[in-house]
Here is the input.
Amino acid sequence: HRTGDWHAVLALVRARLGVALVPRLASIVPPAGVQIRRLDGTPPVRHVIGVCRGGAEHRPAVRATLAAVRAAARPYEDLSAAA
Here is the structure.
């Protein structure tokens, strides 16, 4: 199954139709019968890309936003290199 609706994902798990990887950003409370477990070992990697209109990457606001995203991701670069 594939869906971006985390409540639907957990409903599928609850119905015993599989297991799921759910990002912490989903910020959801699991329904009765579903348990959330942290993964051991190397954490999964998420790739995030910035998209803007051609030429807009030179605008100060867009540059600042992309720089902030890069800076926020920097602590996690070492984790993805180890994977």
